[in-house]
Amino acid sequence: MMKKTMIGAMVTAAVLTATAGEWSFPRTTPESQGIRSEAVIDLIDRLEKKNADWPHAYMLIRHGKVVAEGWWAPYDAATRHQLYSASKGFVSLAIGYAVEDRKLTLNDRVNWFFPWYVPPEQDERASEIRVRDLLAMSSGQAQDAAGAMLDAQRGMVPRAFFSVPMAERPGLYFNYHNGNTMMLAEIHRRVTGEADMLRYLKPRLFDPLGFGEIAWERNPDGIDIGGWGLWLSVEEIAAFAQLWLQGGVWDGRQLIPRDYVAMASRKQIENATIPWGGPPDWNQGYGFQFWMCRYNCFRGDGYAGQIALMMPEHDIAVAITAGSGDIQAELDAAYVSLMNAVKHRALPVDAAALASLRTCEAQLRLALPPPAGPNVAFPAESYRMAENRLGLLRVALAPAASGAAVALTLEFGDRTAVFEAGFDADIRTRTAFAYPEPLDLVARAAWSSANELVVNILPIGTPSWFTLDFAFAGNRLTYRQRTPIWFRHETLLDVSATGTRMATE
Length: 505
Hints:
single chain, 505 residues, alpha+beta, Beta-lactamase, Lipocalin, 2 domains, ten-stranded antiparallel β-sheet, 20 strands, globular
């Protein structure tokens, strides 16, 4: 299941890149809102040191004002980032709206919505699953239904959910399953008649918040997938966090029903005994698609470090996007840097500290791990690839016109990536490497030997970078694609393919 939900989504999902909306938070200084600039510098330092593999962007809000923000270049303010499971909070909100509109209740049984999909031999415990059990990740299923649901034929997604065996009665134990959220999206479609959750949320949420055009991956039935798949800028993540922090009120309007805010953001199920637990912020309880945290905080989070952290006692919202193997370290950084530094009054102006903070923010940079090796003259060549897991059909390499880069063409079954990788500097290209739809990527290359080319690439908006190895032997090419994958512990996705040089015309 990990491969489907984490790797598969990262490698094959279609996305829409779009500019952010016109709205933005007011900006001010940390001291004016009771936070020392030195504390924010400490936060940045901790994110860079403990967030093992790069923070991409952050935003810190106090009393509804941005006091600090930063993007590690090549990221910028307009970059939309994969949220992964941080998308779940938006599904929770859509269900909250449906409850407000009396389309359903939290105690409705899930099988009521899809009676014709329930297998006759189904465990009677499955008939007890309620909407609130899906929201609280307490469906009682023995395993995540998401894999079966993604593999299901069109129209059969609910049946795939019900086909998963039960382990216990619903509502008693926490069991974090993406299939629960996917089923909420199916129920939402059923009761509202709207398959496009983005379109449903647009007038009630996205337009009032001033979001621009965004996209959400879809399941086999064309429904927004729910459990992951949303792309937002760091400021849009921060706005969503601030909305919950304000009790669902925005610009004087109650955008989220107040009683639903209270339910979703408090503990609905205990999770202190989950088998894979350990980090302290994973055993504080779970709300309705939100994690409860220490210090009376709550959060939405997503694979590889996407975070919307709400700190109600301090009126602070923190948004972070990242390619991280340690979400707990990100949370710890926020707690340690901010909680003891926050005052409930404005602090004296500290021009020197503020100048240091702004300089620090302006100098934030990511750098691809620079491959090292000799500068090797090489001819333009094209290779036909044998059948492989990547769906890679053809590889072509040629010296770039500038002479300081290699031009690469990678032809997959559903897309072709054409880009350059610099030998002395990163080169940015818009192409379709990791996704069918184009994304910006930066690339750096080096010859590790006379017969091996190494290329490091970062698709912007994604949590991972890729290392591509091209090994040449006679008329043969071995292509190797590697990327770190973080799921409970660091692993490595490592896939190879071989090819044969094509005759030149």
